[in-house]
Structure formats: structure tokens, C-alpha cells
Design a protein that fits this description.
This protein is mainly α. It has two domains: 1-32; 37-125, Alpha-Beta Horseshoe (Leucine-rich repeat, LRR (right-handed beta-alpha superhelix)). The chain is built from three helices and three strands; from the N terminus they run αααβββ. The chain has helices spanning 4-32, 38-48, 57-69; strands at 75-77, 100-102, 123-125. A three-stranded parallel beta sheet has the order 1-2-3. The radius of gyration is 19 Å and the shape is globular.
Length: 132
């Protein structure tokens, strides 16, 4: 069993490592996509890992991150990427001005819960999907 001095040193070292890693990750993410938050990037990164065969989630991530970096962009085109799902990221403030979303020619079976937050959306294309 660790003594008080040893356990204090151990906890202090863990906090130092965590702080260093958090600062490095925050710095990288803010340089890559300054207009989006870390939480949304984290969700996108998890969603891209191990996609179903044939799904082009990496391209969807790239297109979405490009959307984040354009301040006056009001449209997002994710058509023909054979996506079966979308990440639950539409509550991010970056989507508050999204007016046109093209999700046609995918294999979507459902839309994420945060999809209801797209208040400015005026055009939505969902043709050729598997929505029920």
C-alpha cells in the first residue's frame, strides 16, 4: 500500500500528465478547426473509427470539418458517401445557420437525435436512402 507521501506524488504526476495531454489535444483541435468545439470533433473522430464496409466516413468527416472552417457557409453536401448513419453533432452552434443539407444517395436508416436542432434548415435532400 502506498504511503501518504507516495500517493500524493502519484496523484500529482497523473494530474500533470492529464493536463499536458489535454492542453496538447486542445491546441491541435483549435488550430485545425477553430470554429467548432472539441466535443463535436471528438464525436466525429469516434464515428469515423471502424466504419462499416463501403461507407466513406472519412470523406464525410473532411467535408464536415471544411464546413466548420467556413464562417459564411450555409450548405453541407454529404451525398453519395454510402453512409448508414450520421454522428450526433447537429447541436453544435456551427450548424445554427445551415440552410441546405444534401444527404441523398446514402444508406441512412435513421437520423440522429440532434437533427432536430437544425432550426435554419430550409432545404433537405434525403432521396435514395433507407429511412423508414
Amino acid at each position: 500500500m502506498l504511503g501518504r507521501k507516495s500517493s500524493y506524488s502519484f496523484v500529482r504526476k497523473v494530474v500533470e500528465i492529464w493536463t499536458e495531454n489535454k492542453t496538447e489535444a486542445t491546441s491541435k483541435a483549435s488550430k485545425a478547426n477553430p470554429s467548432t468545439n472539441l466535443y463535436t470533433n471528438s464525436i466525429l473522430e469516434q464515428w469515423v473509427k471502424d466504419p462499416p464496409i463501403g461507407e466513406n466516413r472519412a470523406a464525410a468527416q473532411k467535408i464536415t470539418q471544411e464546413f466548420f472552417s467556413k464562417k459564411k457557409n450555409d450548405s453541407l453536401d454529404l451525398n453519395s458517401l454510402t453512409l448508414t448513419s450520421l454522428p450526433n453533432i447537429f447541436n453544435d452552434p456551427c450548424f445554427s445557420k445551415l440552410k441546405f443539407l444534401d444527404l441523398s444517395n446514402n444508406r441512412l436508416e435513421a437520423l440522429p437525435e440532434s437533427f432536430g436542432n437544425l432550426q435554419a434548415l430550409t432545404r433537405l435532400s434525403l432521396t435514395s436512402n433507407q429511412l423508414i
